């Protein structure tokens, strides 16, 4: 399999060995409910891991939870609750929503607050090596000492530096030096004792400490949203490589593109976001996964209402095909044409994902497969089962549940009534009943197996 490495800007091969592939994805700063821009990142990485596991790669997937952060403290103080308690509640909410989105592949979630002693130890080592220094406000990383700083994001630091005209913290040696430890002056709710007085860690070192504890200072894959490249991931590289004295920190950097809304990045600070919670009150999680995976993970995804409608229509057509297959009852063995069609579908599906997770092409291959099958006549029960299994396997890798419920009796009665009207050729009345059925959120297809009903449960209510 090949994945695009953001640092070298090249495709890199992932080799299947007995060794476990270690994946670290930057998780949420738990101060607010997850929005669909974040969900895009987490849905993508969940799908990547589902796919790798389906191909028998061994992979360990870890996500950090940033439960110590200025934004959390600020929000908790407004609500007059303890910031760590507030973070616990928010973390629970995050995990519940992830589960609702069928994000099930994370092996371990690790809170920053659980690695404070490692953070302190890392800062000590960085000071000893000359990569960090103490001021009256805290401890900072000395960016000028790490010559690769800026490489990941391709930033020209000198140009950026000259653009900084603001009077900086006088004690800082450089505008880009970032806090490893923040001393707490006032009696703030969260602080830990340290050799530099009581305080709390900076954001970047939290992840490096979690990495070292669980994966070591060199591992395979690190991912997150593209907005984390600078300064967060640059800082992680600087810290880890300065500590270990080895390059590279990780073999492949993976970044998901922005989700934009009216041409602006969807973000909490711009207040133009849609929370996953809100989305899920109206639509099924399958819809969000389908929208996310219909576009290439690296490009930016421009959100609009028509994306929702298109996705629902696509999901509904796959679902109605699955329902249709259930009506196939003829005996006999699988026909050879169907076997070869299934084989080529499986091959396409896998090769598209092997190619840097080309999920749009993968989704297109499902429709091609359905078209192929529809051109084959006389599908018997065994064939139908094999076709259904192939589609189900692929949907499972995409994390799309596609639940099929029983058709309720009142709808079945309407269908019977309509069939009688069609026999007596009262097509006007039969059509009215079709509209009635559709208004109840069912799709009706007249097929060689008779009328087939598919519940549009992608829309709630
Ligand atoms: Zn991170």
Features:
461 residues; alpha/beta; Rossmann fold; Four Helix Bundle (Hemerythrin (Met), subunit A); 5-stranded parallel beta sheet; 4-stranded antiparallel beta sheet; 15 helices; 16 strands; 46% helix; binds zinc ion; protein biosynthesis; ligase
Task: Compose a concise summary of this entry.
The chain contains 15 helices and 16 strands. The chain is an alpha/beta fold.
Strand order of the biggest β-sheet: 5-4-3-10-11
| Strand content range | 15-25%
Ligand types: zinc ion
CATH topology of the largest domain: Rossmann fold
The assigned structural class equals alpha/beta
Task: Characterize the structure shown.
Belongs to the class-I aminoacyl-tRNA synthetase family. The structure is a single chain. This protein is α/β, with parallel strands linked by helices and 461 residues long. The protein folds into three domains: 287 residues, Rossmann fold; 88 residues, Four Helix Bundle (Hemerythrin (Met), subunit A); 47 residues. 46% of the residues lie in helices and 16% in strands. It contains 15 helices and 16 strands. The strands form five sheets. The chain has a five-stranded parallel beta sheet with strand order 5-4-3-10-11, sandwiched between helices. The longest helix is centred in the C-terminal third of the chain and has 21 residues. Bound molecules: zinc ion.
SSE diagram, text form:
Layout: E1 2-5, E2 10-13, E3 21-25, H1 36-54, E4 59-65, H2 70-78, H3 83-100, E5 108-111, H4 116-128, E6 132-134, E7 138-141, H5 157-163, E8 179-183, E9 199-201, H6 203-214, E10 219-225, H7 229-244, E11 250-256, E12 259-261, E13 264-265, H8 276-282, H9 285-293, E14 301-303, H10 305-325, H11 336-354, H12 359-374, H13 381-398, H14 409-423, H15 427-439, E15 442-447, E16 450-455
Helix pairs in contact: 1-9, 2-3, 4-6, 6-7, 9-10, 11-12, 11-13, 14-15
